[in-house]
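Note to self: user wants both folds in one dump. Writing first protein now.
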Amino acid sequence: MTRLPMMAGNWKMNNTISEAVVLTQELSYQLEHDWDDVEVVLCPPYTDLKPVLTVLDYDKSAVKVAAQNVFWEEKGAFTGEISVRMIKEIGCAYSIVGHSERREIFEESDESVNKKVKALVAAGLGAIVCVGESLFVRDEGIALMFVEGQLRAAFAGLEPNDAAKCVVAYEPIWAIGTGRTATPEQAEEVCAMLRETIAHMFGGACAEEMRILYGGSMNTGNVDMLLAMPNIDGGLVGGASLEAASFSQLVKACRK
């Protein structure tokens, strides 16, 4: 089975509305033709979601939009949070869940990640589920066991058809924003383990269907080597998604 590659750009806490509109227009222009061999997803801050979608709708672009985070409750006294229903009404197709920055800075737990995944799939949206190890964990030689535990916790209690709607992003924390990148072989080792774990949890068909992205400082210099690995189906990129030219190159690399 050939999986549809995905290139997702995580803008993090960057771009005001006016900056987001300009960047989206530039991307829309550079990706201005029809293709069905790669799925492109932009992940702006909450304040930029509607303006970005407005530009894409106006240009009749196939590019999709995801939130960077979401809360699992439908509504209520949760000051500062955004619900799945809210991002769905805006037009999001996905939300990132469990990014390492959310886990580290905001102390999100495996349990909260699991609740968010369940809320997204229940509403018919996909989750881009982030897993990955710190440098300490890797140096201790337990990276595979640690990342497998994160994956199992994130997808606990899901049915295979719901899990298949999701995407996994392997992001070695030691390679995010540091300029360091896992070698293709290191990334492939973890991604192959993730696919094997998905097969154990949900069956071989789900494992073959689910996409696994690499999310640790992917850029125009290493994208071809990473995408050549059999279990890497695209990227969840940060800094390289903030410039239209570099992100467009990453999208085009998925089409080879």
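First done. Writing the second protein, which came from a different request thread.
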Amino acid sequence: MEKIEILIPAGAAKILRVLEDHGYEAYVVGGCVRDSLLGRNPHDWDITTSALPLQVKALFRRTIDTGLKHGTVTVMENGEPYEVTTYRVDGEYLDGRHPSEVTFTASLKEDLQRRDFTINAMAYSEKNGLQDFFGGLQDLKNKRIRAVGDPMKRFGEDALRIMRAVRFAAQLGYEIEEETVRAMKILAPTLSKVSAERISSELEKTLLSPHPEKLRMMYEAGITAVILPEFDRCMETPQNNPHHIYNVGEHTIVSIRNARPDKVLRLVMLLHDFGKSVCRTTDENGIDHFYGHPDSSAEMAGKILRRLKSDNATRCAVVKLVRFHDRAAGLTERSVRKMIREIGEDLFPLYLEVKEADTLAQSEYKRQEKLDYLADVRRIYRKILDEGDCLTLRDLAVNGSDLIEAGMEPGKQIGEVLGAMLEDVLEDPSHNEKGYLMDKYMPHSQGYPVKKRPGCEQE
């Protein structure tokens, strides 16, 4: 058997040495071993040991009681935190997520066999080398995700592992072993026990992975039927239309893959056509149409992201981009300026990326024409940026204080006047001059109430 060597960072290596010098077993374990074997730089170095939590605490100067009941102590070494957990055997998982109790054990193998997948159930130390009881190294070589032991038991302990299997497959570009898939399909309904935050986290990690097309595997395993039933309806919605070659769900998968791994972008591509399942009509020629689907999709996106406990900033950005994804600007500077104003300066570049990812997931019909149009919009957009055109109230040469100083009473009229000024400037950027705007939009010339100033009669 080949000799495996893993370079352990100094802090983790010192913790292992201290534990070993005092007669305990100690190994780095789990994801850091997997990633090291794959030639990646691990983010975290977790440690497993035969030492009990209080014994760990007695050996190190700075520790944090992370989860003593479950055997975990955080040891601070060189300013870095390392989680050190006692070998343990989990009790029953009554809630489908957490063990009701844990029992400490002296056996590394017993500790590793409670873990989810073979590639995550390996341990390593410089003293004893790689400990691989369940074939994790071979599964890495075979690019295979396989549950440790009985997959029905592993997924029965923690339903979230069903999604983690797909997530690891997506991150690593692996396939999932047949028995593991079979158990996933049987136990997928138990995902209803898992919190929305956990579901959302795993879904996002899958979407942001190098292989977001593994979303199809979630559908085939019955996962989306529980966590995202709207996607299942998309997979069942055809698009008999010259502009499309896929059903709505397959188009969605391809469009996600076409977008760079940005959270907002890939969520937009996931949700942008969900409304098509309820907006589909078929004309007398058998051609499908989806009138009103952007607004319907935006409404659905908002509800889904609330259900998944998404943060407000992400939800607002995604909903707006979904609403605008099918909108086209005219190929004039004025039209593009107004589109930027509507969508928002920060979101407009993402809107262009959404349009491109969407187009590349359609048929070849008029594709080049659509891409040429996008290239023209990008050219106009760059010209607008280069020339520093006013696009928002922030860039306007006049502000609310200027209007109050000129005599306008504070109130909603100020916003209306500034809005009118901005529309004027969007039409013609050369009008963004304080003198021009004040002369044209002085409040007394528009019939707005003006404050009476000392020594002057109110006009």
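Dump finished. Worth passing along: Residues 445-459 have pLDDT under 50 and may be disordered.
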